[in-house]
Amino acid sequence: MAMNTSIKGVLSGAMAAVTLMGGVATAQADTWRYAFEEALTEVQGVYATKFKEEIEANSDHEVQLFPFGTLGESADIMEQAQAGILQFVDQSPGFTGSLIPEAQVFFVPYLLPTDTKDLNAFFRISKAIHENFKGLYANQGLELLTMFPEGEVAMTTKKPVTGPKDLDEVKFRVMTNPLLVETYKAFGATPTPLPWGEVYGGLQTNIIQGQENPTSFIESTKLYEVTDAITYAGHNNFTTAVMANKEFFDGLSDADKTLVTDASKTAFDYILDYQKGLETEALDKIKAAKPDMVVTVLTEEQRVPFKAAAPEVEAKFIEMTGDSGKAILDQMKADLKAVESK
Ligand code: 6CS
Predict the structure, then answer these.
(1) Checking CA distances to 26, which of 86, 154, 176, 212 falls within 20 to 30 Å?
(2) What is the pTM of this model?
(3) Which residues, in sequence order, are bridge partners of residue 144?
(4) DSSP 317
């Protein structure tokens, strides 16, 4: 979607401002705009709400929240954030892969741990995130504030899945990044990249027959209504990222920079804590709403052919991203090793 000029007109009025009074710079109360890819009550929305509360409790600034759909698809809000119309944006690496190819590293299957403690520790300490990716996002005019996990992804399909053979001829919706296409090719499916807004309708009309997402998102968006089986292969956890327009961030006073980074850190801790038990609760709700939904947690043996696809996808990632991608992948592996449970 092209940038909507009426949105631009409405939004451009409230950029950060500083008044010079007798030569002294006085910070004014500003309105900052923050868009994300989910509803207010879903994980990205809960994070954004906490961030807003922190900013507003510790300054005179106001944060306006724009949930999914209010300003377009994920690609639209990214465009608006890069243009400085939005000050903050949450865009998941699943969509950022076209802008920053290295972000696709989050789609190498079986790279992230399934153990929540290890996973959270990785997001907390990862040099790949806090150093390598910070620079790559900066090159695109974005100040990376945080990355956090949103839950193990499960596949939902029309028929039960116990192995790659069950994905044969299944048009499987993936987020719009080329590496995820490679993953699902290697898993035996026919990958179909689509923006989020087309997923429910695509399943309903049988244009696609499968998709992957965290259980809580499958429950809140009612994807179980248009699929009949949910399968856990343990192949990934959904990662998302929050960033600020870099020019806006660089132009903030030191106090406001600290305000923003502190609010990000508080919201990060909050969202990890908030997600404890969320996936189990969501699966219970799905089972209650649709008792005949087939739930399959693949055994170690059933995971073998899916795991066998990982080296091929990893090789594709390096082919797509070269030395820069390899450096990120190596750093990620070192970070993961550092947090691995003994
Ligand atoms: O599958 C998607 O496209 C969406 N999934 C999640 C968990 N968040 C936003 C994203 O657009």
Answers:
(1) 86
(2) 0.93
(3) 243
(4) H
pLDDT per position as a tens digit, 169-210: 999 999 999 999 999 999 999 999 999 999 999 999 999 999
Ligand 1 pocket member 217 (CB < 6 A): yes
Tell me what pLDDT residue 28 has: 84
Question: Which pair of tokens denotes residue 270?
Answer: 């909050």
Separation CA 308–CA 245 (nearest Å): 40
Is the CB of 175 within 6 Å of ligand 1?
yes
Domains in the chain, ordered, with CATH? 30-341 (3.40.190.170)
Ligand 1 contact via 187 beta carbon (within 6 Å): no
Range list of β-strands (E), the chain:
18-21, 24-27, 31-35, 62-66, 88-90, 142-157, 171-174, 190-193, 210-214, 229-232, 237-245, 294-297
Closest listed residue to residue 113, CA positions, set 331, 341, 342, 293: 341
Handedness of CA 5, 11, 13, 19 (dihedral sign): negative
205: CB partners within 8 A, 6+ apart: none
Atom number of ligand 1 nearest to Cα 240: 8
Ligand 1 contacts CB of residue 77 (under 6 A): no
